[in-house]
Amino acid sequence: MLQGILEEKTSARGIVTMQERRKYQRIEGTLPLKLSDPEFDVVTETKNISGSGVYCSVNTPLEPMTKVKIVILLPLKAKGRKSVKKITCGGVVVRKEYVKNNGKHLYYVGIYFNDIKEADRKQLVAYIDSLNIPAQEPSNLP
C-alpha cells in the first residue's frame, strides 16, 4: 500500500527506518478547511496535510480532477501572541474514497495544491515542521 511512498534507510548504527519520499513532510492533524466551487461550499477539517496537498472528509462526492478553491485556517504564534493566517489556494481532487462511518456516508478526498502562493506554502511547511518532531535513535545502543 505504501510502496513508492516510503523508502528504507539504514543508519551508521545499523538501525533500519522508513523515510517518506514525498517532497514535503506530511503530518496527521486537524486544521479548519473550506472547499468550494461554483456549485458547493463544504466546511470540514484536515485528516493530514503537507506543503503539496491535503486529505480530508466531505459529505458530498468530489470526483477526481475536480478543481476546488481551498481556504485553510493556520494557527500561528509569534512573540507570545496567537493569531490565524488564512491561506487561500486552488486545488485539484486526485483521490476519492467512499467510507461509511457510524451510519454517515463520507468521502475521503486527497487534494493537490495546484495554485498556491509560494509564501503561503512556505508558511504552511514551517507550521508542519514545527509540529513534526523527528524520531531519535536510542542512545543506549552500542
Secondary structure elements and their pairing?
Layout: E1 6-10, E2 16-20, E3 27-28, E4 32-37, E5 40-49, E6 53-58, E7 67-78, E8 81-101, E9 104-115, H1 118-131
Antiparallel strand pairs: 1-2, 3-5, 4-5, 4-7, 5-6, 6-9, 7-8, 8-9
What does this molecule look like?
The protein has 142 residues and is mainly β. The chain has one domain: predicted glycosyltransferase like domains (Thrombin, subunit H, Beta Barrel). Helix content is 10%, strand content 56%. A 6-stranded antiparallel beta barrel has the order 4-5-6-9-8-7. The chain is globular and about 45 Å long. The two termini are 34 Å apart. The relative contact order is 0.19.
Q: What features would you highlight for this structure?
A:
142 residues; two-stranded antiparallel sheet; 1 helix; Thrombin, subunit H; mainly beta; 10% helix
